[in-house]
Specification:
411 residues; mainly alpha; two-stranded antiparallel ribbon; 19 helices; 2 strands; 73% helix
């Protein structure tokens, strides 16, 4: 029979997984995005750290088994930033995640996400990748040079040492670069504030169904879901799919599968207190840059999150919130460079121009506006190309007619 058995369907993805130092190094490489947004929502909005870590861990394990490549689990950035800067309640955050997940689930189930992926010019997805890379680099530099309390100039020194380690160990197979830098951050934190490690307490409050009132859905829709949905479509689905094709070829993550993954994670887990979660091209670039090549990376990180959540729960907040930003910033900056460098594959001048203009617009404004501006540039270039081609063809036709010998008329 041609169809695979259930056992084969289970064993096939498991056979390609790796659990080694390189996968572990790639696992910690995306913490520069993950930790600041998670800690911000916990401190500002009342997100339960233990529950958020537990569900992020479950999502990571599922993603690693489902895709077989290092697909990251990240907070939904638009929702997280609005929640932290403008103040959203936990119930509003949960509702925003569920609404965004429902839209992504609908796009995946109906196949509309595949149509969107075919209609949108690839160069615009490259523009989003380039913009994300630039933003990650800028954010990473700002974090690594910030004067963190109780670190001071030592934080900048730590950033310089971290940068040197990443460059020096970039080709090492024995010592994973990102893992070494992450451990360096823990050692520096222990040296500066050892009391944070003694504040850890065993225990977890088990998740319970969130209470979401009717009044939570409207602000969740307009403040959270509406700005998040276009970013999820562009970054979590289209950009991740394109980058995975660049990095893994036939093992790429298909847009429909990514949309279903984001949809199911948020529809099923946000009602129980999970932070709104998505995938991201920056996270994939970070995992790959520091050694990850299989879904083992996501499973390692997911398992670590589950264990930490079960053992320590919310007592981890003090430790995570004081982890050196300089170390996270360096990891984030290197991930941004890796993501931006993927765009060097584009060689056609008009595509490069459209990509750069779209990326600049994304960085200066936001991803939705920048994307629309980039699409307008592409349409104008295509129209100009058609006009030039039509004029060239007309000139050739006229030249051929002028060069043709006169027709002899019979008398």
């Amino acid at each position: 029979m041609g169809g695979a058995t259930f056992g084969e369907m289970i064993r096939r993805p498991l056979a390609n997984l790796r659990f080694n130092r390189a996968e572990a190094s790639g696992a910690v490489a995306d913490l520069g995005t993950f930790l600041p947004l998670l800690v911000g929502m916990v401190s500002r909005c009342g997100l339960h750290l233990g529950h958020a870590l537990l569900f992020a861990g479950v999502a990571g394990v599922v993603a690693g088994l489902t895709f077989g490549i290092p697909i990251p689990i990240q907070p939904m950035k638009a929702i997280a930033i609005v929640a932290i800067t403008e103040g959203m309640t936990m119930s509003e955050i949960s509702a925003a995640g569920m609404l965004t997940g429902a839209v992504m689930l609908a796009l995946g189930l109906t196949g509309l996400i595949g149509w969107i992926n075919r209609v949108v010019p690839r160069i615009l997805v490259r523009a989003v990748q380039l913009a994300l890379g630039i933003k990650l680099l800028m954010t990473g530099v700002a974090m690594s040079t910030a004067m963190q309390p109780r670190m001071g100039w030592q934080g900048i020194t730590l950033a310089a040492v971290s940068c040197g380690l990443l460059l020096g160990l970039r080709s090492s197979r024995r010592v994973p670069a990102a893992l070494a830098v992450f451990v360096l951050g823990l050692v520096a934190l222990f040296a500066a504030q050892p009391q944070l490690f003694t504040s850890l307490r065993l225990g977890l409050e088990w998740p319970a169904l969130q209470s979401i009132s009717k009044s939570d859905w409207i602000p969740a829709l307009w403040r959270g879901a509406v700005p998040q949905i276009p970013l999820t479509v562009l970054n979590s689905v289209m950009a991740v799919s394109l980058l995975s094709a660049d990095l893994f070829g036939e093992r790429r993550a298909e847009p429909g599968k990514l949309a279903l993954s984001v949809g199911l994670l948020n529809v099923l887990l946000c009602p129980f207190g999970a932070m709104p979660m998505c995938h991201g091209a920056g996270g994939l670039a970070a995992h790959y840059r520091f050694g990850a090549r299989t879904g083992g990376c996501a499973i390692i990180l997911g398992t670590a999150n589950i264990v930490l959540a079960l053992l320590f729960g919310s007592s981890l907040l003090a430790l995570l919130s004081h982890y050196p930003l300089s170390v996270l910033g360096v990891l984030l900056a290197f991930a941004g460079v890796e993501l931006a460098l993927v765009c060097r594959e584009e060689k056609v001048l008009k595509d490069v121009v459209a990509m750069v203009l779209g990326a600049v617009a994304c960085v200066v404004t936001n991803f939705a506006v920048g994307f629309l501006f980039g699409w307008a540039v592409v349409l104008l270039m295509r129209a100009g190309e058609r006009i030039v081609t039509a004029r060239r063809d007309k000139s050739k036709t006229q030249a051929l007619r002028a060069a043709a010998p006169p027709t002899c008329l019979k008398g």
